[in-house]
Design brief:
The complex is a heterotrimer.
Chain A (H helix, E strand, L loop, with lengths): L4 E10 L2 E11 L4 E5 L6 H8 L7 E6 L2 E2 L5 H6 L2 E4 L11 H7 L7 H14 L15 H13 L5 E5 L7 H16 L3 E6 L2 H7 L2 E6 L2 E6 L6 H9 L16 E10 L9 E9 L3 E5 L6 H9 L9 E3 L2 E2 L5 H6 L2 E4 L14 H9 L6 E2 L2 E2 L1 H14 L16 H13 L5 E5 L7 H16 L3 E5 L3 H7 L2 E6 L2 E2 L3 E2 L5 H8 L10
Parallel strand pairs in A: 3-8, 3-9, 6-7, 7-8, 13-20, 13-21, 16-19, 19-20
Antiparallel strand pairs in A: 1-2, 1-4, 4-5, 9-10, 11-12, 11-14, 14-15, 17-18, 21-22, 21-23
Chain B lengths: L1 E5 L5 H25 L4 H9 L1 H4 L4 H27 L7 H19 L7 H27 L3 H21 L35 H19 L1 H11 L1 H6 L4 H25 L13 H11 L4 H25 L4 H17 L1 H4 E5 L6
Antiparallel strand pairs in B: 1-2
Helix pairs in contact in B: 1-2, 1-14, 2-13, 4-8, 4-9, 4-11, 4-12, 4-13, 5-6, 5-7, 5-11, 5-12, 6-7, 6-11, 8-9, 8-13, 12-13, 12-14
Chain C lengths: L7 H27 L7 H19 L2 H25 L4 H20 L24 H6 L3 H19 L1 H11 L1 H6 L4 H27 L11 H11 L4 H23 L6 H21 L1 H7 L13
Helix pairs in contact in C: 1-6, 1-9, 1-10, 1-11, 2-3, 2-4, 2-9, 2-10, 3-4, 3-9, 6-7, 6-11, 10-11, 10-12, 11-12
The chains are: A alpha/beta, B mainly alpha, C mainly alpha.
Chain lengths: ~500, ~350, ~300
């Protein structure tokens, strides 16, 4: 049988890095093929070549045995390749139908298109209203729009880039049902992920990439997550060891906190209440867009709330700004590294000043002590193993993992009483991620309270002492992390409060 | 084919080189323009850039003019540069310039003929206040109602120009001016006249204020938390909020400072070089100052040089108008071109140009 | 003072003419902004259109050729902005300002031999019987063709943006250029076409000023009309129909204050001349005050830099 897609010798170099080096594998009709690898292994570049967004420097692709070299996505789509992106390529202000129409070569009339959308979404169990605005929809619903957009074109190959990162466990089940149905109808699926359990559940074959090269292939159902992880990472991983947790005195008390989101498509916080104790790592799970950003803004002081809604060591801080809260020991590291946690074009020294000038006393009557600031930056770089030529390099010149180490390090070095981090290891390579988790645990061990907001359940299970779920701007009851099951979390993420599991 | 490749770090060498490249490119393009207008391009460029300083015949008159014309441009450009760095776009410096002149000059006219050393300090303060308050209108409307400061500050230029015209045809009209729409001449009023401090240098109080602004501006930008916060605000609104910068305060400060400096520039201009309020008073310095701010890389030291250069093109342009009959407007087009070239070559700071090799997309 | 000289019908007829240049320019800028680009050079493109249109009309004797040539020159000037912002990734605010300053200077340069000349007359249409009807006649059937063309353009722009595929793509580009690029749409090419359209419309609006509205060439004759057109786009919440209302409102204020000046109202004419600018500020404030709604209508990528990384 001719393979549906045959890749051989694909190479693509960017200045300073070879993204893909002599990559080759095959996908058969009706096969779900996994592309497995760490962040930076070259998965995205490979997929972009298949979809016509990037042209390979050398190598060959064949589709149905015919040479296949799309110069733009239009050509790839015409040849039967469809793609669901990791970051949705959707237009918030436009409707579902308009969005789908934009992704099609020859879209039918509006009314006919709406009918087709309803029909396909019913066929595959993906409920959608063609006239709704994307901006008003959840991440799971948005993904459905992407999938329906692909399905309307009867693709031969469906490429899915990290499709489950924004879904609740229940939504993942629905997605897998859809994928199985497609496979049974003969559609091939290229499934990109680093989540090993998922790949074992859904994929027939897997190709493993490391540093741009194919380092192995396997049949996932015959492997254990551990053996696949070792192929993917190449070295043994140090996982933080969980320590016994005895709650200390309460550090942070949040009571009945409300916040109207400033973003018209954002999620407002509703009646948030919880307490954080010395030595505690509180993990806050939830699907993206359920108020994580807003929670961080409210706690860091970038958004003000009623004064008594937040008590830090007994003092009301709800209407204080970020620098006043920093002085009192409340620090934060937001999710978006470039452009929120750090200023992209500024040097690491200047970025050290960004949040460090109050607690580290880096100014004198408003005048910046640049030498002291440079020393502070250098200390962060050394202590947190930030790979950079020096303190005067721009933040944007660092890799994601190194910049994240710098950002987290900058806050930890200021010895916070309470540290709030959002997505601390998102898009960070495995060794940096392990390093960051270790540092957070160490901080808690020294008596600080740490809040980790994350969409990575594995991460939260690994480091949290206590656990809560943020759903549609509401926070569930905080419970002990030990003994929580994935099903329970899934229900909480969907917004159902489960009462039987006592904290 | 040429291809752009992003540099890992902005090039510092290019930050200094690009304004020079832009000036040279403008001279070439300007030369072409002058040739099309029927003048010898080399003569025109020489008259504009060389003669005002070095020509024996005219330099004794034009050299002092250099500082006189540069002072308001630099003073205003430094104020504007802080806002431009923070993405607060005060485009209405011309209006604030006019209001500084009207309020400060109006105060002087009201005090006439009271002679005292205290008069000049009072009108200086009133000039700054006039410009400051005029700039606070777009600031407050932006903060309270989210109204675009570009459009509001610009509309206020036309309002200010009309207000000036109402003043010089009404309450501030000179009683001895034979009905012309202009105020009393300030050189008739010793205490309020901004005279030349050293003869034939062009040095007046406005030049001193400009020099102070360069020094203070440079220190504030590079050594003070205020300058740092302004720079963060311009790079990323979210990062600046995270750093505890109050966005509303930034808007008010940026517009307020640039308004006050523009008001000062207007006051020094009206009581000195212009010597009276009239409908001809606005010369577009407020707009040229925008070019000066960009040409100087939004850096006070750079702005000092850019202001002197721009002043040179004004004076040289007048000479060229005189000697070659090149229309006055040509110099404005020339200045516009300079801004285009500068913006265009700026890309070399963050990108390098590479020859496209075969087979690479 | 004699207000009886101000006839309501004449007032409306002349306000439609007064509104036409800014309506044309605003419609052009609306399309540009919908594609995610903020071009502050409208004033510069208008005055270039005014002078080029004037020169062409005087030289050829045809006002129609004047409008066409004004549009072409406006579009050509806009290409400087397009190259700077789309290829060389220059700051849009600064580039737009540069365009305005260059345009004002260059127009004065081109036009300095043309002041004091009368352009060929651009006739209003005259349909026997219909135009002679009382009130309705002058209101509906007595304008010059450009007034009708400007109203037609309101509909054309609306139809293009909301009913055509190309319009949908243009809106998508303005909404999220990265997503549009990922889908394979040529972001830069689409934006350059939008910028060119904006330039042509501004140029045509400028030509209307020098050929019909004033009608003669004087330096700086746009007097902020381009900036008012920019404010109009905000006022209209990026909707063509509302731009028509806004333009007529503004035209009304302009014509009314001119009439009041002519009627000899006992305050300085300078104060009356301020009113159009003050009204623009007030309207801008009202339209921007509801932050959430304002940002919902604004194209999300407006003024942001686009650089394809792949």
């Amino acid at each position: 049988m001719t393979p549906l897609l045959h890749l051989s010798g694909l190479t693509k170099a960017y200045p300073g890095v070879i993204a893909n080096d002599d990559v080759g594998f095959e996908i058969q009709p009706g096969e779900v093929h996994a592309l497995l690898g760490e962040n930076g292994a070259g998965k995205s570049t490979l997929v972009k070549m298949i979809y016509g967004l990037v042209r390979p420097d050398s190598g060959e692709m064949r589709l149905h045995g015919e040479p296949f070299a799309p110069t733009e996505p239009r050509e790839a789509r015409a040849a039967g390749v469809a793609m669901v992106f990791q970051h949705f390529s959707l237009f918030e202000a436009l409707t579902v139908a308009e969005n789908i129409s934009l992704g099609m070569e020859n879209p039918p009339e509006n009314a006919a298109l709406s009918d087709q959308i309803r029909q396909v979404s019913a066929n595959y169990g993906l409920t959608l209203d063609p006239d709704r605005r994307i901006g008003d929809m959840s991440a799971g619903e948005r993904q459905r729009v992407e999938i329906v957009r692909c399905l309307l074109q009867n693709p031969k190959l469906l490429v899915m880039d990290e499709p489950t990162s924004v879904l609740t466990p229940q939504e993942v089940d629905v997605l897998f049902e859809t994928l199985r149905k497609l496979r049974d109808e003969g559609t091939s699926i290229l499934y990109i992920s680093h989540k090993l359990e998922e790949i074992r559940t859904i994929c027939d074959n897997a190709t493993i990439l490391r540093l741009g090269k194919v380092v192995g292939t396997c049949v996932p159902s015959e492997e254990t997550p551990k053996t696949m992880a070792e192929m993917m990472v190449g070295t043994e991983l140090k996982t933080p060891s969980k320590r016994p947790y005895t709650p200390g005195p309460s550090l942070l008390d949040v009571h009945d906190m409300w916040l109207q989101s400033a973003d018209p498509f954002g999620t407002s916080l509703r009646d948030i209440s919880f307490s954080l104790h010395a030595g505690e790592v509180l993990g806050i799970a939830g699907v993206a867009g359920n108020g994580q950003d807003e929670l961080l803004l409210a706690l860091s002081g970038e958004e003000r709330v009623t004064n008594d809604a937040i008590k830090l060591k007994g003092e009301n801080v709800g209407n204080l700004g970020p620098n006043h809260r920093r002085l009192q020991g409340l620090l934060a590291a937001p999710e978006e590294r470039l452009g929120h946690a750090a200023a992209p074009d500024m040097s690491l020294t200047e970025n050290a000043l960004l949040t460090g000038f109050t607690r580290q006393r880096l100014t004198n009557r408003g005048f910046v002590k640049w030498q002291a600031t440079r020393n502070f930056a250098r200390a962060i770089i050394e202590k947190f193993d930030v790979r950079t030529p020096g303190t005067e390099n721009a933040a944007k010149s660092l890799s994601g993992g190194n910049l994240q180490k710098f950002v987290i390090g900058r806050e930890i070095m200021q010895r916070p009483d309470v540290l709030i981090v959002n997505q601390p290891t998102w898009g960070v390579d495995a060794s940096a991620a392990a390093f960051i988790r270790e540092a957070l645990l160490e901080l808690a061990e020294q008596g600080a309270g740490v809040i980790v907001i994350s969409q990575d359940l594995d991460e939260l299970m690994e480091i949290s002492d206590t656990f809560a779920v943020l759903s549609e701007g509401r926070l569930s009851r905080v419970r002990s992390a030990s003994g929580v099951t994935i099903e329970e979390i899934g229900l909480l993420m969907g917004g159902t409060e489960v009462d039987n599991a006592a904290a | 084919m040429l291809r752009l490749e992003q540099r890992p770090e902005p090039s510092r060498a290019m930050q200094i080189a690009t304004p020079i490249i832009a000036v040279i490119a403008t001279m070439i393009a300007g030369g072409v323009m002058f040739a099309l207008l029927g003048s010898n391009p080399f003569t025109a460029i020489r008259i504009i850039f060389w003669d005002p300083i070095f020509n024996d015949v005219v330099a004794s008159y034009t050299r002092p003019q250099l500082l006189i014309k540069a002072a308001p441009l630099i003073l205003m450009a430094i104020g504007l540069s802080f806002g431009f760095r923070a993405n607060v776009w005060n485009i209405g410096a011309e209006g604030q310039f006019i209001m500084g002149a009207v309020v400060g000059g109006g105060t002087a006219l009201a005090l006439y003929p009271y002679e005292s050393f205290i008069v000049f300090p009072i009108i200086i303060v009133m000039g700054a206040v006039g410009g400051f308050l005029w700039a606070m209108i777009p600031a407050l409307l932006k903060i309270k109602f989210n109204a675009n400061e570009i459009l509001v500050s610009l509309m206020l230029v036309y309002v200010a120009a009309n207000f000036l015209s109402a003043m010089v045809t009404g309450p501030m009209k000179s009683p001895v001016g034979m009905g012309f729409p202009e105020s009393r001449n300030f050189n008739e009023y010793q205490s309020a006249f901004n005279s030349e401090l050293l003869s034939n240098t062009g040095l007046h109080f406005g030049v001193l204020a400009m020099m102070a602004a360069v020094v203070v501006g440079y220190i504030a930008l590079t050594r003070h938390l205020f300058g740092f916060q302004i720079r963060v605000a311009g790079q990323s609104a979210r990062a600046s909020r995270f750093a505890g910068v109050n966005p509303n305060l930034t808007i008010a400060l940026c517009l307020g400072i640039s308004g006050a400096l523009a008001g000062l520039a207007g006051l020094f201009e009206v009581t000195g070089p212009a010597s009276k309020l009239s409908t001809n008073f606005p010369l577009g310095y407020g707009f040229t100052a925008i070019i000066v701010a960009f040409l100087g890389r939004l850096n006070p030291i750079g702005i000092l040089f850019a202001g002197l250069l721009m002043s040179l093109t004004y004076i040289g342009g007048e000479l060229a108008q005189f000697q070659l009959q090149i229309p006055a407007a040509a110099i404005q087009a020339f200045q516009g071109m300079l801004l285009f070239f500068l913006l265009g070559v700026d890309i070399l700071i963050n990108f390098r140009v590479r020859l496209k090799t075969k087979g690479v997309a | 003072m004699d207000f009886s000289a101000i006839s309501p019908v004449a007032l409306i007829v002349s306000l439609m003419a007064a509104s036409t240049p800014i309506l044309l320019a605003a419609l052009g800028e609306l399309v540009v902004e919908k594609s995610g680009v903020l071009n502050l050079g409208v004033e510069g493109m208008m005055i270039i259109g005014a002078v080029c249109g004037f020169i062409a009309a005087v030289t050829t004797g045809s006002p129609w050729l004047g409008f066409v040539f004004g549009a072409i020159c406006g579009a050509l000037l806009s290409m400087i902005f397009a190259i700077l912002t789309q290829y060389l990734m220059a700051n849009q605010v600064a580039s737009g300002l540069g365009l305005t300053m260059f345009g004002l200077g260059f127009a004065a340069l081109l036009g300095h031999k043309y002041s004091g000349i009368k352009p060929p007359k651009f006739h209003s249409i005259d349909i026997p019987i219909l135009t002679d009807l009382p009130i309705v006649g002058p209101l509906l059937f007595g304008h010059d063709p450009m007034v009708y063309i400007s109203i037609l353009m309101v509909f054309v722009v609306w139809y293009f943006l909301n009913r055509t595929r190309a319009g949908l793509v243009l809106r998508a580009v303005g909404e999220n250029h990265d997503a549009a690029h990922a889908l394979g749409y040529k972001v830069i090419r689409i934006r350059i076409m939008a910028i060119g359209f904006g330039g042509a419309m501004a140029g045509m609006g400028g030509a209307y000023l020098s050929l019909v509205r004033v009608p003669q060439w004087t330096e700086g004759m746009t007097a902020g009309a381009g900036w008012i057109a920019l404010a109009l786009v905000v006022f209209a919440s990026w909707k063509p129909g509302r731009a028509l209302i806004g333009a007529y409102l503004f035209g009304g204020v302009t014509v009314l204050q001119l009439n009041l000046q002519a009627a000899g109202l006992s305050i300085s004419p300078a104060y009356l001349s301020m009113t159009p600018y003050l009204v623009t500020i007030i309207v801008l404030v009202i339209m921007s005050a509801d932050k959430a709604r304002a940002s919902l209508n604004a194209p999300a990528s407006l003024g942001k830099l686009f650089h394809a990384t792949t």
